[in-house]
Design a protein that fits this description.
By secondary structure, this protein is α+β, with helices and mostly antiparallel strands. The protein is built from 20 helices and 31 strands.
Length: 699
């Protein structure tokens, strides 16, 4: 009985093993031999609604140049299982594969014709339904691809599939890059691209598709909602002004190895921002538009003194002729000491002269004397100037300003005097510009804006008009005195080195000590700034420049660092628009023989004068000499003393002599411009370090 039962069990077990082996074999056969066929059958039954991305709108400058636009690019695939390619046992493919391989090699230049042929034949043999041929090719290359043998016969006969995508491009590269922003796939947008994202991206469409093998989507006819393309933006930015501002800022920052900087140019009458340049130093020492420093709040320093003067004058606490004792630049108040940045040694001066000298002591004493009993009266003025509010510019990410009041937790016995010269307050460069622009605009404070018009297909949908924030920031009498002060800074004060004989400038320099994180003020990092407008008699543009210098920088005063940026912008804009700008006769250039002054090797100067038959009086003693104009067409030679062991003063020398002196000291030289030396990156009298680089700027 036992044997009878066992042979039945063994027989059943054997049957089960055979059946299992058959099932496993069939599964392997279906998966590996018939897999492609059954997967394609499955895909034909798979449908889904997919999104159709709209074309993103373009951002234009005021004069119609594209600042940011979408460029199409293409990914190319081949469906070797296409009916037209497989019919007649692949006759069409075999007839064209040689010529197609040669043309592909010539077009893309990344593989030989033989390699292309081998890869195409391998894909055809395997009936690859989604073979990747090339990715990210341009529209121009795609157009040439469409004319190649086989490809030009169409998608069904050739199997070629083009997948279209788009990239956001800035044709001008660095120019206003941060302000315009970026439309990025996997990161946060910034600038106008972010602020106006909903308008630029348009309305997404929908389409019902059926997926065939290889993941290729085939549209189902009659089930489609077309996307609505994005709107275009016409900005207030002028490409030429932006380029001038960007380059002027970059040049000074490279020379001074500055950490970061920003420069803004505004149209006085409207509040249009014509240029916003933002530059930060990267880890490798290069500069890039990394952050929008124009709308980041910092301690402004001495450019804030204009607000203090406005308050004092408007409340009739002082006039610009009121006396103030500068205490030789040092004043103690409530356990702290106020210092003037430059040791001038002055005592009794007028309020206007204190402003000219950018005296911290003068501003602090006047503010403390007149507002210590009622600090809110001073703070209320700052609030009326909107220094405690957002500027209103159409950019997301602006820092909130900080204007203290007696109710603030951090208010102390010294807050009022320190606020008077730009410390213990936080305002952005844009807010500073709004204040100076208001003074230039007869007291009318304008809302700053960047987008002038919203368009679609060239049709205007919305126009932004100039908007007034404050009808009058002060009385006419106060405004007149403020303008006098800003003019005086440029003729008698800290900005006098920035004067030009061709048109008048009004403005104010600023220098502020900046904290460096946990290290505090130990690194002596200074923020240099200049704010003003031009021409002073009929203001057309206002401008602010703010640059944060490297630790222990040799040059850090506002007039020496930020001022030249302002001056270069003003000069170039004046030259571009000289016909539209009225110039008072008082500032027109006059003939002046004192401009005739040269320096160089004495023998060379004498040779030139002799060749020109020019009589001269010689009082020069030594190798180097100056020659200048004298009376009765007589030239005067006097001694030019050049220091030894330290960096000499090269100003006035021609390039040949300057190079001789500098290279004989084992220094490297970089030269900008032509003519005589007008500035040098290593200050005269500085100890010389071998192999250092000296930048010489010629006039």
């Amino acid at each position: 009985m036992k044997r009878d039962i066992l042979w039945r069990v063994y027989l059943c077990f054997l049957g089960i093993v055979v059946l299992g082996a058959f099932i496993l074999g069939k599964a392997l056969y279906i998966q590996n031999v018939q897999g492609a066929y059954w997967r394609s059958k499955s895909d034909t039954l798979h449908t889904r609604i997919v999104s159709l991305e709209a074309d993103r709108g373009t951002i234009y400058s005021e004069d119609g140049n594209m600042l940011s636009t979408s460029i199409p690019y293409f990914n190319i695939y081949i469906d070797f299982g296409a009916d037209g390619l497989q019919e007649k046992n692949g006759k069409r493919f075999r007839e064209h594969v040689d010529s197609l391989s040669i043309q592909l090699a010539a077009l893309f230049k990344d593989r030989t014709a033989a390699v292309y042929k081998a890869q195409l034949q391998e894909g055809f043999r395997k009936k690859n339904r989604y073979y990747s041929l090339q990715k990210n090719i341009s529209f121009d290359v795609y157009q040439r691809l469409r004319e190649l043998p086989l490809v030009k016969q169409g998608r069904n006969k050739s199997g070629f599939i083009a997948e279209v995508k788009s990239k956001r491009m800035s044709p001008y590269g660095l120019l206003a890059n941060r302000t315009i922003g970026l439309a990025r796939e996997n990161a946060q947008n910034v600038g106008l691209e972010y602020t106006y994202d909903s308008l630029l991206k348009g309305e997404t469409g929908k389409r019902l598709v059926r997926f065939i093998s290889g993941g290729v989507a085939v549209p189902v006819e009659g089930y489609e909602i077309e996307p609505e393309n994005g709107h275009d933006l016409k900005t207030t930015i002028d490409v030429n002004i932006q380029d001038i501002a960007e380059n002027a800022l970059l040049k000074v920052m490279i020379e001074n190895e500055a950490v970061q900087g920003t420069c803004l140019v505004m149209e006085v009458a409207t509040g249009k921002l014509k240029a916003i340049a933002n530059l930060g130093r990267t880890g490798n020492g290069e500069y890039w538009e990394d952050l929008n420093y124009a709308i980041r709040a910092t301690e402004p320093g001495s450019t804030f003194k204009l607000a203090t003067m406005l308050s004092l004058l408007e409340d009739k606490k002082i006039t610009i002729a009121s006396p103030v004792n500068l205490e030789k630049g040092v004043w103690k108040i409530n356990g702290r000491t106020v210092f003037d940045s430059e040791r001038h040694g002055r005592e009794e001066v007028t309020a206007e002269q204190a402003f000219d000298l950018s005296s911290n002591v003068g501003m602090a004493k006047m503010a403390y004397l007149h507002y210590s009993r009622n600090p809110n009266q001073f703070v209320d003025h700052l609030k009326r100037l909107r220094l405690n509010e957002f500027s209103g510019v159409d950019l997301v990410g602006e820092n909130h300003p900080v204007i203290k009041s007696p109710k603030s937790k951090t208010w102390s016995a010294t807050s009022l005097p320190w606020m008077s010269f730009g410390y213990e307050v936080l305002v952005s460069p844009l807010q500073t510009l709004m204040l100076y622009n208001a003074v230039a605009n007869n007291g009318k404070m304008m809302k700053p804006y960047l987008v002038e018009e919203i368009q679609q297909n060239g049709i205007s949908l919305q126009k932004n008009e100039p908007k007034v924030w404050v009808d009058s920031i002060c009385s006419g009498s106060t405004l007149k005195q403020l303008r006098t002060c800003l003019n005086s800074v440029m003729t008698n004060g800290t900005g006098r080195s920035l004067q030009t004989p061709y048109y008048p400038i009004a403005g104010k320099t600023g220098t502020a000590l900046v904290a460096n994180g946990n290290r505090g003020y130990a690194d002596h990092i200074y923020q240099s700034s200049f704010a003003g407008y031009f021409p002073a008699n009929e203001p057309k543009y206002s401008c602010v420049v703010v640059i944060v210098n490297k630790p222990h920088a040799v040059k850090y005063y506002g007039a020496a660092v930020a001022g030249p940026v302002f001056r270069e912008i003003a000069d170039k804009l004046f030259a571009m628009q000289a016909q539209q700008i009225a110039v008072p006769s008082a500032v027109l250039p006059k003939r002046d023989s004192s401009a005739f002054r040269y320096s160089g090797e004495k023998k060379a100067i004498q040779k030139v004068l002799a060749a020109m038959n020019w009589q001269y009086r010689d009082s020069a003693d030594g190798k180097w000499a100056n020659v200048a104009a004298g009376k009765d067409q007589l030239a005067l030679l006097d001694t030019r003393t050049l220091s030894t062991g330290t960096m000499p003063d090269l100003k006035g020398l021609g390039l040949k002599d300057a190079l001789f002196l500098v290279e004989s000291m084992k220094l490297k030289v970089q030269v900008k411009g032509k003519g005589k030396v007008v500035s040098q990156s290593v200050v005269a009298g500085t100890a010389i370090k071998k192999d250092n680089t000296v930048v010489l700027e010629l006039n």
